[in-house]
Amino acid sequence: MKRPAWDWRLTDLADVPQHGRTVFSCFSCGGGSTMGYKLAGYTVLGNVEIDPQMMRIYQRNHNPRFPFLMPIQDFKSIPDAELPPELYDLDILDGSPPCSVFSTAGDREDKWGGEYAFREGQAVQRLDDLFFDFLDVAAKLRPRVVVAENVRGMMIGKARGFVSLVLSRFRELGYRPQLFLLNSATMGVPQKRERLFFIAAREDQPFPPLRLKFNEPPVLYGEIRSGEGPPINSSSKTYQRWQKRRPQDLNIGDVTEREEGKISNFNTILLKDQKVANTLASSSVFLRTDQPRHISNTDAIRIQTFPADYDFMDANVQYVCGMSVPPLMMRRIAEQINVQWFGGNASKSKDDTNQAN
């Protein structure tokens, strides 16, 4: 029988038909977007990543031709003559500017304008400036298309003004931006992950408006569940929350009263076999409803549609997955850009055509 699309391997990429379109990825992390483009037949030339650990993992799994380990501000300041000429002939510039200041969890407005290290070991940056640093890269490289992914929180409350500024900046640079709020659960991903995508075509490209509508059947947690995760510490607050919430048979979308603080209880999520998993965040605590255990690493990999043979090296599996775009989500988007704008056909990878071993 056919393997489902979420059950794939990096080795499958060798069987994906190539159409020659090129991509360069900023804020690449573990390469979720990179893998999506590759599954759709694109050639990903390289990446920019600030985190040394994430760059090591990216290079191990993706072997980029042009890797840049540096802040995006340093990359955009590299003299034009010192960059590879291939980067000035890109079909797509891709990026996922860090977005925690726009998250719907916590007092997000209090963080705007502040300087933070996104994680230990990284440079301190103003996170809400990074989107405009990314657009400066677009102004420098002038790709045919720019794709930027961010959190749904950018469309809520005061953050909508930030979105307007981003759209205006796209237009100033000579791009026609479109905005899409997409749910990965409609795209064959075993996860209800809502993300905002800015997709902009350069003004000289005679493309019609892009249409993105996906209606694939939901993939329930019970379909991808595998292995045993670590047990919940019976003396922890997490165990108390598991006991409290489990008998009430709550929907995984429900949020209980946050008695122990906004972060801890908000990020404790119980998964049911008959439901689609919630958004896998790098810091969320995913528990199984029917047993006092965390989810397994295999669960996290499948929920995020990472390949089964991905080498996480010394990194936490959930952190790498949670910080990345689900590859299958980006694959669906990239396929439509190729079909609707670049005049190609949707590629088929090994997971669509081969029999399971």
How would you describe this structure to a colleague?
With 357 residues, this protein is an alpha/beta fold. The protein contains 12 helices and 13 strands. The chain has helices at residues 32-39, 52-62, 72-76, 130-141, 159-172, 221-224, 237-245, 262-266, 297-303, 317-322, 327-340, 350-353; strands at residues 22-26, 43-49, 66-69, 92-95, 115-117, 124-126, 145-151, 175-183, 191-192, 194-202, 268-271, 277-278, 285-288. The strands form 4 sheets. A 7-stranded mixed beta sheet has the order 3-2-1-4-7-10-8, with helices on both faces. It has a two-stranded antiparallel ribbon with strand order 5-6. It has a two-stranded parallel sheet with strand order 9-12. A hairpin with a 6-residue loop joins strand 5 (115-117) and strand 6 (124-126). Helix 1 (32-39) crosses helix 11 (327-340).
